[in-house]
Amino acid sequence: EFDVPASLVVRVAQEMVAEVREKNKNDQQLKRIPDEQLVRFYLPQAEKQVRWEFIVDAIVKRDNIVVTDDDLNEVAQSVNMTVEQIREYFQDEQQQMQILEMKVSRMLLDTVTIEERPLDDFLDELEARAEAEEQEQEELLSDDNDKLS
Asked: Cβ atoms within 10 A of the Cβ of 12, count?
């Protein structure tokens, strides 16, 4: 566990809300839900995304992971595009992050070990995590509301 900036988590949640609203602009039920409620709903997912981005960034820097020609060739083959088209698309640093994230994910999956344990222990742990996340959400919202005041 490590702390992530609450303001960044809130901003990512707000971006998620904007994206959902854009994709579902004709949804009348969604239009009736206030942004603040949707932001609260997306906070846990936003926090996980921010944490993941921090982890990926740290691993990329630590292990000097870069996008290679082989990576671009692999992506081109998987999406049935030319290498030139993929190279043009992935010129942007944000787009390259997608490939770096894929490489980090593969690396982590290759090194992970699976631990078997009783289901009741696992469910207890999940419940404790959910309660802790709920408390963190309340604290994030409280901190964010204090900043807006």
From this structure: 21
* Residue with the two structure tokens 């900036």: 5
What count of residues does the chain have? Answer: 149
Interval 24-44: pLDDT, tens = 999 999 999 999 999 999 999
- The secondary structure of 77-133, three-state, reads HHHCCCHHHHHHHCCCHHHHHHHHHHHHHHHHHHHCCCCCCCHHHHHHHHHHHHHHH
pLDDT confidence tier of residue 8, bands split at 50, 70 and 90: very high
Residue matched to tokens 């640093």? 93
CA atoms of 66 and 117, how far apart (whole Å): 37
Q: Is the dihedral of CA 75, 81, 82, 86 positive or negative?
A: negative
Residue in 65, 17, 25, 26 with CA at minimum distance from that of residue 45? 17
Residue 148: what pLDDT? 59
